[in-house]
Design brief:
Elements lengths: L5 H22 L3 H6 L1 H16 L6 H19 L7 E5 L3 H4 L3 H6 L10 H7 L15 E5 L5 H4 L4 H4 L3
Antiparallel strand pairs: 1-2
Helix pairs in contact: 1-3, 1-4, 3-4
């Protein structure tokens, strides 16, 4: 009736057990360690989806175990800290690309906010000594963390030139 034989049912229950064990071991990790174990978390999520999609989940005991597994996974995933990765941007020419820190910061795929230019400068201070002068071909590091008001004014550069 559920489209499985005894071997299929046993394999299904063994998979539930393996996933319960994997969840328990992942729950022992810190949120940062969980973020670094994203591949394992994604694999467990795919396994749980497969378990939920199998008709054998209609068996009451299995339904309870899969539901408990799913709930535990959701709670664990909420506590994950995903590490913020940086990207890069290669400066183009003024004539062709109109690249300056202001224009780079306002690009939709960068920060979509021109006032965030000090964040780019701060991330690349070893390369950019004067924020008014950037060179074509420079590869800038772009932080993918959210832009805050402090990021926009972290250098105080704007205030030095208002006198």
């Amino acid at each position: 009736m559920l489209g499985s034989d005894r071997n299929g049912y046993n394999a299904y229950r063994e998979q539930i057990g393996r996933d319960e064990h994997e969840l328990a071991s992942l729950q022992q990790l810190t949120p940062q360690q969980l973020g670094a174990s994203k591949d394992k978390v994604d694999a467990l999520e795919a396994d749980i989806r497969a378990l939920r999609g199998n008709k054998l989940v209609l068996i009451p005991d299995d339904m309870r175990r899969v539901q408990s597994l799913s709930n535990g996974f959701i709670q664990m995933k909420k506590s994950m800290v995903i590490p913020v990765t940086n990207s890069t941007y290669t400066v183009g020419t003024w004539r062709k690309d109109r690249d300056c820190l202001w224009n780079i910061a306002k690009k939709p795929d960068i920060y979509n906010d021109p006032y965030a230019w000090p964040k780019i400068w701060h991330m690349n201070k070893e390369l950019i000594h004067n924020p008014d002068i950037i060179q074509p071909g420079w590869v800038l590091t772009i932080s993918k963390s959210p832009v805050t008001e402090e990021d926009k004014d972290m250098t105080g550069y704007r205030h030095r030139h208002t006198n």
